[in-house]
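Usage

Read records sequentially. Each one opens with the input sequence:
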Amino acid sequence: MKGLLLTNYYLIHRSFLTYTALAIVISAVIFYFADPSFYRIIAMLIILLMAMPALEVIKLESKTGYDKYVLTLPISRKNVVQSHYIFYFLIVVSGTILSYGVFSMYSLISKRAVENIVNIVSFGTFIVLFAGAIAYPLLYVFGAEKSDGIVLGGGMGGLFVAIALQGVVGYIVEILAASSLPIVSSLHVPILYTLLGMVMYIASYFIALFIYRKREF
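and closes with the structure output:
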């Protein structure tokens, strides 16, 4: 598994570093010109830009023929799918950490505290996890040739679902607030978004695994 993850990284490490730098620059520009209503967009863009190269792994594997070569190695198809999902998840976690760092640095430099940073970043994390959950099964079905449209559609789908779920999340938060559960109220929203994102991502993994096992090369 470690070898597969390292291979995935080396396939996209240049674009990953480029997109990471781009995410920092774009977030700085938006911070300078925009108001707090754009904070969620900033968090989403940072994580999404960092995660986009991870979704290009399958496309690069197809171009180089590695997707066929890897099946000749003493590993299962399950291992291949796991490597894609784990790698993407690790990149999303890295993007989430960077997003926290960018917001913290902005608060320090501007001397203006950003309220509810955890809520803002968790919203972006959910969107990008959902984008991956949509993209991988579709990539296995339609192939790497459709990767650009699939990645774009996944990101837009994640955004729309996140917005649509705000009412549901708000309702659940009200129930949790009225309960006696020992959870700090400020953490209700990020915990819910994180749990929803993880559930969808894990469900997507099993769907993608089923598709990949049936796939003929």
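Summary fields computed downstream for this record:
- The chain has eight helices and no strands.
- The mean pLDDT is 77.
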